[in-house]
Amino acid sequence: MTKSSPCVWYALVALIAAMAGAGRGMQAAPQSTDSSPTFTRDVAPILYANCVTCHRPGEIAPMSLVSYQDVRPWARAITRKIADGSMPPWHADAPAGTFSNERKLTAEEKSILERWAAAGAPEGDPTALKPPPTFADGWRIGTPDAIFQMEEDYFIPASGTIQYEHFYIPTNFSEAKWLKAIEARPGNRALVHHILVFYEVPDGPRVAPAVQPNREHSRIENRNPPGNRPARNNGFPSRLLATYAPGTDAQVFPDGTALQLAPGGLLHLQVHYTANGTAGTDRSKIGLIFAKEPPAEELRAGQFINGQFTIPPGAVDYEVATDLTFLQDATVRGIFPHTHVRGKRWSYTLELPDGTKRPLLSVPRYDFNWQTYYMFREPIAVPKGARIVSTAWYDNSTANKSNPDPTKAVKWGDQTWEEMQYTGILYSLKRGATASAP
Known about the structure:
CATH topology of the largest domain: Jelly Rolls
Number of helices: 5
Order of helices and strands: HHHHHEEEEEEEEEEEEEEEEEEEE
Number of strands: 20
Low-confidence stretches: 1-32, 222-234
Mean pLDDT: 84
């Protein structure tokens, strides 16, 4: 799930260079007038509410946007990136307020930033600056109830292509746990592009399915190598719990819900490292917070895929679809679309048993470098017999600057030069509900 050439880190470094050029051309900031926005009064509150989660020391973004001295050199570049939709990184097409984790600026906020840069980026009265937000030390979810860490350091070379790595951490849970929040935290942010966290119980009981992916499309080659790794279902792990990647937040589940972890499970970490010219090591960790009591609704983490496709060489807008059928009434909480670097857009449609079709999610500008779990502010009630149809489109042409090789036909595969049509789905059931047989 990382871009092979260039990766997001190099793209961000290039962005810094472009921004620096723009910043050096600015003159000394003039004194503000009553009509022009100032940093302390108008701009800082916007940045504190929308940007500094990533744009602060120690986080993924390449520059801090906390102080006036930090921000002023980038004033014009910030407005350009906002105008072209690059920042804040949000790619769903939906009315404001549809998703609880959306990153959007209002028209007024955009206007303030534009007018502030045009006025020369005045600071304003320093005494009017409100304190920046505070963040938990080390963990966005708060202090974890349990922390699991890779068992040893992993060495990343200075250069070269690094295959996806898989790490397995025993939880040694002697009883079932109700998971309320989970966070994947990289040990070395400069070298870790993404982490996927799965929960696997090699010999444990399997819960009755509540959803049925399209069986024909879900067949893929099982490439899991032999050894002590748990068996994989149709070639991919069965329970995705959390993700870390640029743009992805820690997962805190809605009130009244929690996800059950069976005893004896393993945390399976799929990690992709990106060489950046300097060798280093990583020892990432996972933090868990447990619910104080069993929830009213049990969360389920599932996925549905189409692994039976071949994208022709040079294809500009190649369509791949699949679907998921609900075997009982459920509530959809979030959707996670994922392709690799040829993916260009996604669409999801809810089809009800009476034939009614309802748009569920549209991602017209899918960006591989920003992996987002779209969490609905108002969860979607889905009746038994309904299905979700997912459709992804791919650009395997020379027009796609990220395309590793437009002369090659592309099939399903783990590596970035291959492709996926993968959707993670988070849904909930009334606790104690029994699923029908598929």
